[in-house]
Write a structure and sequence with these properties.
This protein is α/β, with parallel strands linked by helices. The protein is built from 13 helices and eight strands. The chain has an eight-stranded mixed β-sheet with strand order 1-2-4-3-5-8-6-7, sandwiched between helices. Helix 1 crosses helix 13 and helix 9 runs antiparallel to helix 10. The protein is globular and about 60 Å long. The model has no long low-confidence stretch (mean pLDDT 93).
Length: 327
């Protein structure tokens, strides 16, 4: 059980749990509430993070703010200039689903602001969070990857931002895939079904928002996600499904294409920089670099693994820590 003598620290925007002096920091950057969308938070990273903290100790930092730039802070992005944050704020009230300017802002910056006081408050919270994370010499940043076709066949994807040698990472990845091979094989059907259900939800959302699934019509962020899914679908689907959607691109042929592709995808596995290479992680890169001997893992667990098997997720990350980071 967790150490009942540990003291929780309540900071503005995040919580810290410490059960012993340690150089290890585990941070759940997007564990806070979501006011805009059911997928606008990294759901269950706090659950797996708690089990991970139970396994290896250290400090567990859990963000309690939404990642939405209007409603909170995305600690995985960089600091905007004050005039940028104030200017973009009103765009959240003007068709954010189809706003290209807002989409590009989200890729780079951590928050928008209603006024200068709001900007200063969020800046202070952001700086304090990264001050706490930077106290660690071994840092694990825990995220959720969507269970969608574009992420196939990754069950967990991770990057070290170059803080750990690739030779060591390759060896650790092979070891963990071998250790959990039976689990990965047995869960592949459920993994595929969760991707199918999530794909159907996304298609229904597109129809509700835009009345169409045509990439030329839907909003920019939705278009990017759909095009990545389609690239993988075309890779694995058979010719019949591909020809069907080329003849008539609609919500039915799209879902049929995805279902068909799922019958042919590989067994899920642990991957290194297969999808997530950290290019949008402006927060960690700006705040932790130069690393000066720090070892960092940014871990993206599939929503399937976090929801169905959070203990196994924690155990896999524990193995990564022991093999790559443990002093």
């Amino acid at each position: 059980t967790l150490n009942i003598l540990m003291k929780p620290f309540i900071e503005k925007g995040f919580l810290i749990y410490r059960n012993a002096p340690s150089s290890l920091v585990i941070a759940c950057l997007h564990a806070g509430p979501s006011f805009e969308s059911i997928v606008n938070r990294d759901e269950n990273t706090d659950v797996a993070g708690g089990f991970l903290w139970k396994n290896i100790g250290g400090s567990l930092i859990v963000v309690s703010l939404p990642r939405s730039r209007m409603w909170g802070i995305d600690f995985n992005r960089g600091i905007p200039k004050a005039d940028q944050a104030l200017e973009i704020y009103n765009d959240y009230f003007n068709n954010p689903d189809i706003n290209s300017k807002l989409n590009e802002f989200r890729k780079k910056y951590a928050w928008a602001a209603a006024n200068e006081e709001d900007y200063a408050t969020r800046l202070g919270c952001y700086q304090k969070f990264w001050e706490e994370v930077c106290l660690g010499n071994e840092i694990i940043l825990l995220h959720r990857q969507h269970s969608c076709l574009k992420n196939v066949p990754s069950m967990i994807d991770f990057t070290s931002f170059g803080s750990i040698k690739n030779q060591e990472i390759s060896k650790a990845t092979r070891f963990i895939n071998k250790k959990y091979s039976v689990f990965l094989d047995k869960t592949q059907y459920d993994y595929r079904r969760m991707i199918a259900f999530e794909s159907k939800r996304r298609i229904l959302q597109l129809m509700k928002l835009f009345g169409n699934v045509n990439p030329k019509i839907i909003g920019p962020s939705y278009r990017e996600a759909l095009e990545k899914d389609l690239a993988v679908a075309y890779k694995y689907a058979d010719k019949i499904a591909i020809n069907n959607i080329r003849r008539s691109f609609n919500e039915n042929t799209l879902f049929q294409l995805i279902e068909n592709a799922l019958h042919h995808i590989p067994v899920p596995r642990i991957t290194h920089e297969f999808i997530f290479r950290g290019e949008l992680s402006h927060g960690p890169l700006n705040k932790l670099f130069p690393f000066n001997g720090k070892k960092i893992l940014q871990v993206e667990c599939s929503s399937f693994l976090l929801y169905w098997h959070p203990v196994v997720a924690a155990d896999m990350i524990t193995d990564l820590y022991n093999l790559l980071m443990k002093p």
